[in-house]
Amino acid sequence: MNNDFKQERYDLAAAFRWAARLNMHEAVANHFSLAVSEDGSQFLLNPNGSHFSQIRSSDLLLVDGNDKTTMSKPNPPEPTAWAIHGAIHRNNPQARCILHVHSKYATILASLKDKTMYPIDQNTMRFFERVSVDNGYDGMGLGNEAERLSNELGNNQILLLGSHGVIAAAPSVALAFDSLYYFERSCETLIGAYQTGKTLNIVSDDVARKTAKQWEKFDNSKVHFDALKSILDKEEPDYKN
Length: 241
Description:
Strand 5, helix 5 (144-153) and strand 6 (158-161) form a beta-alpha-beta unit. The protein has eight helices and seven strands. The longest helix has 24 residues, at 173-196. Helix 3 (104-110) packs across helix 6. It has helices at 6-21, 79-91, 104-110, 122-125, 144-153, 173-196, 205-218, 221-235; strands spanning 31-35, 42-45, 61-64, 97-101, 131-134, 158-161, 165-170. It has one domain (6-236): Class II aldolase/adducin N-terminal domain (L-fuculose-1-phosphate Aldolase), CATH 3.40.225.10. The chain is an alpha+beta fold. It is globular and about 55 Å long. It has a seven-stranded mixed beta sheet, sandwiched between helices. The model has no long low-confidence stretch (mean pLDDT 95).
């Protein structure tokens, strides 16, 4: 460890390992980050070219989103990761942890003309009126693209990236991972319902809104994430190395 952010590193490394276990990774692409400074300018980020299943806590880079010399230094991060995550951490104070993946079902939904997460079951209701949708895809996330995405996210925990993938952003790794997990499950349910060819049974706005608020009060993200880390402690303890 080259700094004091031991627990932060453990948590983020655990998120990488579980994303790989759940097949939400994609080759050596996609990126997770965790802000470690009050203003969000300094954050931990996965190194370029590392597979999620192999990332250890000591592998994580400590970068500064305001340091324009970052990409010219030794072992620089992937440029789109530094740009997008830097902009979101800088502009969205609640987004301490940012998880970006091209998971299967979220990407399918992101590829549809109608990207609405319809409230058809208890999980999909969690995200009622709580998903930001970006329809302005214009290539890789550099420059203005990064700033635009940070504005699109707003105060929501999920940003569905049209023609791209998904971002989960939250005050903690546990909540960001929990949101990402349930959003992917919700997308799987919705896409599966579409595949039946039958009419969706969409609940009323009142029921969906009430259930979404109940999800917020029920927040079990820390218990969920602690359970995941306990499994890694037994089966993949090297994530803490």
